[in-house]
Design goal:
The protein has seven helices and seven strands. With 231 residues, the chain is an alpha/beta fold. The protein has a single domain, classed as Vaccinia Virus protein VP39 (Rossmann fold). A seven-stranded mixed beta sheet has the order 3-2-1-4-5-7-6, with helices on both faces. Helix 3 crosses helix 5 and helix 5 crosses helix 6.
């Protein structure tokens, strides 16, 4: 589905580095977001622990796994009403993928002429959830994720200097926690543009940033995948 900072266009390339073959060791993904990487990585692992701090998002993924079907249309009135409603799978769907411009959380009602964003998002989610039957969804902070030695962790945090997600993110604390996990014997992969000097860049690709402003030209950025952990 459309999601701010999502990895749907490069997921297969990242998977070829993170998990080129099947492993019966677990995967932890503490910033699952739109689920593109979760769907791509899940078939390579026996167990996957996918989490996110956003309550509506996790409610949506749990509901989808249990057979919930998102609506094929969402009106602007419904969108505005959901913006101020209680957390729910439907609110998570509308707020990110089903009706929001650019996949940003209630970032404005998406108008695309003949395009039906809700139907596109519903079909995308229904495809992805088929690959997530071995996934355990949890609402929690990455700080509360404790992988066991030998497992793999993939993190796709908010990038430094990019559009925010509605909350302040401590990048120094993040890298400190990722290093702590890597030092415990976990294979840790992080998607970002930059990383501390003791992290190795194992893959990179220059591409056009998805979020474009109508006031500026598109920006080319170099996506990188960093690694720290057992050799």
């Amino acid at each position: 589905m459309r999601y701010l900072g999502g990895k749907s266009k490069i997921a297969k390339r990242l998977v070829s580095i993170i998990a080129p073959t099947y492993t019966d060791i677990a995967l932890y993904e503490p910033f699952m977001g739109g689920g593109a990487m979760t769907a791509a990585l899940a078939p390579r692992f026996k167990h996957v622990y996918a989490s996110d701090l956003h309550e509506d998002l996790i409610l949506m993924w749990k509901a989808l796994q249990n057979g919930w079907q998102p609506p094929k249309t969402i009106s602007e009135t419904e969108y505005q009403n959901l913006k101020n409603s209680d957390p729910s799978p439907l609110r998570g769907f509308a707020g990110f993928a089903g009706a929001s411009w650019g996949g940003k959380w209630f970032g404005g009602y998406a108008r695309g002429g003949s395009r039906n964003y809700a139907d596109e998002a519903a079909r995308s989610l229904n495809r992805d959830i088929q690959f997530m039957q071995n996934v355990y969804f949890n609402q929690k902070s990455y700080l509360d994720v404790v992988p066991y030695p030998g497992s793999t962790l993939y993190a796709d945090p908010p990038y430094v200097g990019t559009t925010g997600y509605g909350f302040k993110f401590d990048h120094i604390e993040f890298w400190a926690r990722m290093s702590e996990i890597a030092d415990s014997g976990v294979k840790v992969f992080v998607s970002e543009y930059t990383a501390p000097p003791d992290w190795s860049c194992v893959w990179e690709l220059t591409r056009t940033r998805d979020m474009k402003s109508h006031l500026t030209d598109a920006v080319s950025v170099t996506e990188k995948l960093f690694y720290k952990g057992p050799k």
